[in-house]
Design goal:
33% of the residues lie in helices and 23% in strands. The chain is of the alpha/beta class and 411 residues long. Helix 1 runs parallel beside helix 2.
């Protein structure tokens, strides 16, 4: 057997015999090593053991297939990639690697254990998951392991984490964890990144600090501290936004203060929006949403008057020519260049957007911003603003589906 275990919780994962397990961890904790050791242990100590690994899409299962194939060739009798990646061991046990891209293809009985990875991925809908996954192990009284991160106190938090925290045979707040042959049916773990073996050295601890400084606090709590927040993808914590709800709206500039207008350009598919910021007070003085389909020539003139009123520097989002990425960079920007003196133009790219969101999140977390309570639309957009992990160090930031985020972009 290939031995990679170095953490107490990884040994617990491998030895646990509960039939419903939740491995919830921060990033880079070692659940992949835990899975690798568990599947080898189960397939080597049992004859004819049927194992299935499921990832949200094909790439992750293929990676796990390649790893096992390369790490323990002496244990493997045969392998194939078609119709799905499959490894058969000399013990008669085998493991299949599947994706959740088409859940209907997963249907069918006969598995002893299923490992469902990256459970936080949006492809795992509760109704589809429950109609497909549990029946696969039911006739062999098999095990289901879900692994990944929290995204709020949602369906898998309730089913695979909350129940697993209750001692076997007991009921807490109406939730029961029954015993099966003397073993708790449910068992779960919550392991933050700080407990991971990779982050125990001085260099590892510094790496965590660097990561913490590079992302919003709410995002850090979910992805590294393994906390379940009320808003499953929230960029800003409610208590921080509440602390920033202060100050009073003003309608004209004050002496010895500076003003900046952030302007998010749109026209056809998305409205334009603006935010007026006062320095050094960090007070949001005024916000506005421009009616959809207002021509850029008209917007530019109104923005010129607004800037003159506040004696403000104007910074405009000019990505894609204000056409949602469909126009040329100068197609509509020329109106603002000609009408708004000293205007500065900003172009959203992934790296810059992450840096800007981090800057905004710091001003919210440190309660620097003053956002008057009257500016309800801005408060609503900030509360709903979400992040989505796109892989590696890439994140996407946006309003939830059907909700705009133009004021947040302006800010």
């Amino acid at each position: 057997m290939i031995e990679l275990c170095v953490c107490d919780y990884q040994i617990e994962w491998i030895e646990c015999r509960s039939r419903r397990q939740g491995w919830f961890t921060g990033r880079r904790v070692g659940k992949t090593d835990g899975f690798f050791n568990r599947v080898i242990e189960r397939c080597q100590t049992n004859n004819d053991f049927k194992y299935t690994y499921i990832g949200p899409s094909y790439e992750l299962p293929k990676t796990q297939y390649d790893r096992i194939l390369a790490s323990c060739p002496d244990l493997i009798k045969r392998s194939s990639q078609h119709p799905v990646p499959n490894i058969e061991f000399w013990t008669g046990s085998r493991i299949k690697f599947r994706s959740f891209d088409n859940p209907n293809l997963l249907r069918g009985p006969g598995e002893d254990e299923i490992f469902v990875d990256e459970i936080q991925n949006s492809k795992y809908k509760e109704d589809i998951f429950n109609s497909v996954v549990p029946p696969i192990v039911s006739d062999r009284l098999g095990t289901i392991i879900v692994a990944g991160q929290f995204r709020g106190e949602n369906w898998y938090w309730k089913e695979y984490y909350q129940k697993g925290q209750i001692p076997g045979g007991q009921t807490v707040n109406g939730v029961t964890n029954p015993l099966r042959s003397g073993v708790p049916l449910y068992k779960s773990w919550k392991i933050p990144s700080s407990r991971g073996i990779r982050f125990q050295s001085p260099e590892g601890k510094q790496e965590l600090e660097d990561q913490k400084a590079s992302m919003p606090r709410a995002q850090w709590l979910q992805e590294y501290d393994c906390e379940s927040l009320a808003n499953q993808a929230s960029v800003f914590l409610p208590e921080d936004l509440a602390a920033c709800k202060c100050g009073a709206v003003i309608d004209k500039p004050r002496k010895d203060h500076q003003y900046i207008i952030g302007y998010d350009l749109g026209e056809m598919a998305d409205p334009s929006a603006f935010v007026v910021l006062e320095l050094p007070t960090w007070l949001i003085c005024q916000t506005g949403i421009i009616p959809l389909r207002t021509k850029h020539a008209v917007q530019a003139e109104k923005l010129r008057l607004l800037a003159a009123h506040w004696r403000a520097t104007v910074v405009l989002d000019a990505t894609g020519g204000a056409q949602g990425g469909r126009g040329t960079s100068d197609e509509n920007v020329r109106f603002y260049r000609n009408r708004v003196p000293g205007a500065r133009f900003y172009f959203w790219v992934q790296k810059f957007k992450q840096e800007m969101v981090r800057g905004l999140s710091l001003s919210v977390e440190n309660h620097v911003l003053q956002i008057p309570g009257e500016l309800k639309e801005l408060h609503e957009e900030l509360s709903a603003y979400e992040f989505e992990h796109k892989g590696g160090d890439l994140y996407d930031y946006h309003g939830p589906a059907g909700r705009r985020d133009n004021l947040v972009a302006s800010l």
